[in-house]
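fold description:
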Amino acid sequence: MYRERDEETGISVQLPQVIETRRDSRPAPKGANDLEIAKQGAEMSPPPRPHRRRLPVVGAAAPNVIAAGAWFGTQWWTTGRFVLSTDDAYVRSYNTTLASKVAGYLVSIPVQDNAEVRAGDVIATIDDGDYRLAVDAARDKVATQQATVARFTSQIAAQQANVEQARAQLVSAKAAAKKMQLEFERQQALLARSYASRQTLEQAEANRDQAVAAVQSGQSALDAADANVDVLKAQQREAERTLDELRTALAKVERDLSFTVIRAPVNGVFGNRAVQTGDYMQTGQRIASLVPLDEVYVEANFKETQLARLQPGQPVSIAVDALPDHTIAGTVSSLAPASGAVFSLLPPDNATGNFTKIVQRLPVRIDVPAGVTAQRLLRTGMSVIVSVDTKPEAAARQGAIGVAQAAPAARSRTTEGQP
């Protein structure tokens, strides 16, 4: 291109390349021969353009483009339009927080970080000196109270013997009273016939009255002995209740002693350690976390506009960011009863102020096959991409596959249980 400045306007304009050669295009001077004029014309003529062959290339590529478009269209019509995907999905598990039930100094943590433990394995131990002393003191109190209960048993037996003695004395007093009554009647008859003196009758009457009083005294002694038996039995029951309280106290201190050894409640991997040996543990203080990797699942947060096509039993393809070479087949298990915002610490309140509608997301639980979890490939918190096949027949097909996979496992468990 060539720029030429307009003298009147002062503006530079671009002119075609042929303008740059206009000085050479003026007529040839006189005397120039035809050969020189031909050379000058050859220099001024433009170079020949290369021949383009685009139409045959486009014609050859057109069938491939059409075939690719047909394939993608068929895939979308048969599969793609039924698939719901989201990358707002993560691996989850029911983590267990291990904490101290009693206070004391941490003696040891025999488990290494990220080690796999089984239910019942020792995770940590707390100094149990004070708790053993408390158990010994409680056992001594129980033994003392047991002796008290035994003493009341002996006292009741002795008091029952006193009751029998009082009963025998009462029988003897009644016999004596009967004898004195007969003697009084005989002396009274003799006095009526003047065969006895009045003094003898009065003596017989006095003896009769004494015998009657002895009977009453014997009856009172028997009643008192019976009442003492009841009192001793009541005291024995009170001592037994006290013994039960002491036994409960003994069970409590023994339970506290058992809590000085912290054991794993479930199978899992030990991690997120928060204390060290020698630390003083408070009641309820966290020690570490236990992650059951054999029970992991996927939690996918789908938009509320996608939930109408989701239902339990549908097959799911799971792509894990950390495992690009693995594609896991899962199954939709259940849908959450509310959105994540409802369960947040500060739920939104849209009844005040300006309102901006935001599409909510609801967690959808996706189960992972047991064979995958057994490989320990999935770790809690991993990011995944899930794709749910919402075809009507997909859920039925997935259910049949699940039954077929569960049958061998059930037969294996039955075989293991047989002798």
Summary: The first strand starts at residue 2 and ends at 5.
